[in-house]
Write a structure and sequence with these properties.
Layout: H1 6-26, H2 28-39, E1 51-60, H3 65-75, E2 79-86, E3 91-97, E4 105-112, H4 118-128, H5 144-151, H6 161-170, H7 172-180, E5 186-190, H8 201-210, E6 223-224, E7 230-234, E8 239-243, E9 249-253, E10 256-262, H9 287-293, H10 299-302
Parallel strand pairs: 1-4, 5-10
Antiparallel strand pairs: 1-5, 2-3, 3-4, 6-7, 7-10, 8-9
Helix pairs in contact: 1-2, 1-5, 6-7
Bound molecules: 2-oxoadipic acid and nickel (II) ion.
2-oxoadipic acid binds at residues 55, 57, 107, 109, 185, 232, 258, 285, 289-290, 293-294, 296.
C-alpha cells in the first residue's frame, strides 16, 4: 500500500461523502438497516460501520468504461487488483485496493457492449457517442467538488422509456447503467467485526430478515465462495420513480445494500481475536458470488 498525501485523503473523503450522501437519500434501506442496528444495540452511530466495499457500473464503449472511470480512484491511490469475467452477463470487473485500510475497497464493472445485439448496441451508442473524448481527462481530480459533480451528472442524454425497455429485455445491467450511470450501486457493511451474535453472515441475515428487510434470493440468500471464506448477502434494489425523455415516469431499479463476512484465513486462525486485522482475512471477490449479487437490481429480484 502506498500512503496517500493528506490532500489526497481530504479529496477522497469528500468524494466518498458525496457519494454516500446521495446514495443514502435515494436508498431508504440504508437508513432502515442503520436504524435497526442502532435499535438492536449493535452500534451506537453509523460512524462505527466498516464499509467493506463500494461498487460502480460502467458502459464499455470508447471514452467511457473502466479505462476512463478507474482513473478517478487510481489518482487517490487505489490499486487495480484481480479481474473477474461474467460470460453470460457480458461483464468484466476489477477490484481496487484502497490507499489505506480505513477506506472501502472498490468493485467496478463494465458491460462489453460489443457483445450485445446490433439493436442494443445501436441504442447504447446513440447515447454514448455524444461523449467524444474521455471526460475524466478533462476533470481536475484534486477538486473534490468537480469530481462529486461529475459522478452525479448526466454523462449522456436521459433515455426514452422505449429504449430503456428494449435494453432491459436483453441486458438488465445495460438498462441500469443507461439510466443510473455512476450513481453508487451499493455500499457494503462488514459483519465480521460486529459484536457476538451478529458477526457471521448467517446471524446478520437472520437479524435483517427479522427486521423485515427483503434480501436477494438469487442462488440462495447467502453467497459463499468455494473456499468458504467470503460470504455475502444483499438487499433487493429499491425502486425509484425515473423520469424519461418524453415525460414518461416509470419505476425502475435503483441501488441496494450489501453485507459481507470475510473469514480469517487458515494460517491465522489461532491468532488471538484482538490481533486479527484486515490482512488476516479473505481478500478480493468471487465470480460466483458476484454473478448473483448483480441480480439485486434485476426484475427477477425486484419483481417489477
Ligand atoms: C456488483 C455485483 C458484485 C460483489 O461484491 O461481488 C458485487 C454490482 O451489482 O454492480 O458487488
Ligand atoms: Ni459488492
Amino acid at each position: 500500500m502506498n500512503s496517500p498525501s493528506t490532500t489526497d485523503k481530504q479529496t477522497l473523503d469528500a468524494v466518498l461523502d458525496g457519494l454516500m450522501r446521495r446514495y443514502t437519500e435515494r436508498v431508504p434501506d440504508v437508513r432502515a438497516v442503520i436504524d435497526a442496528m442502532i435499535d438492536a444495540g449493535i452500534i451506537q452511530t453509523s460512524d462505527e460501520i466498516e464499509n467493506d466495499h463500494i461498487a460502480f457500473r460502467t458502459m464499455g464503449v470508447p471514452n467511457l468504461g473502466l479505462a476512463s472511470f478507474e482513473k478517478i480512484f487510481l489518482h487517490y491511490g487505489y490499486e487495480r487488483r484481480d479481474e473477474y469475467n461474467f460470460i453470460e452477463k457480458k461483464l468484466s470487473a476489477y477490484w481496487y485496493a484502497p490507499p489505506a485500510p480505513e477506506y472501502p475497497r472498490i468493485f467496478a464493472s463494465e458491460l462489453r457492449v460489443d457483445e450485445l445485439s446490433d439493436e442494443a448496441q445501436r441504442i447504447i451508442h446513440n447515447y454514448t457517442d455524444t461523449v467524444t473524448s474521455d471526460p475524466v481527462d478533462a476533470l481536475n481530480l484534486d477538486d473534490a467538488e468537480a469530481v462529486d459533480q461529475f459522478l452525479h451528472q448526466p454523462l449522456w442524454q436521459t433515455p426514452t422509456l422505449a429504449d430503456y425497455q428494449t435494453l432491459l429485455k436483453e441486458s438488465e445491467y445495460a438498462a441500469w447503467v443507461i439510466y443510473n450511470r455512476y450513481y453508487l450501486n451499493h455500499f457494503t457493511i462488514s459483519v465480521h467485526n460486529l459484536k457476538p451474535g451478529y458477526s457471521t453472515i448467517d446471524e446478520f441475515v437472520a437479524f435483517l430478515t427479522d427486521r423485515g428487510l427483503r434480501l436477494n434470493s438469487a442462488g440462495g440468500t447467502i453467497k459463499v465462495s468455494p473456499d468458504g471464506d467470503l460470504r455475502q448477502a444483499s438487499t433487493v434494489a429499491q425502486m425509484i420513480d425515473a423520469e424519461f425523455t418524453g415525460g414518461d415516469v416509470f419505476r425502475i431499479a435503483g441501488s441496494y445494500v450489501e453485507f459481507a463476512e470475510r473469514r480469517v484465513l487458515p494460517p491465522f486462525r489461532d491468532l488471538p481475536a484482538d490481533q486479527i486485522t484486515r490482512q488476516h482475512r479473505r481478500e478480493g471477490f468471487e465470480t460466483g458470488n458476484a454473478d448473483k449479487i448483480f441480480e439485486s437490481t434485476f426484475t427477477t429480484q425486484t419483481g417489477n
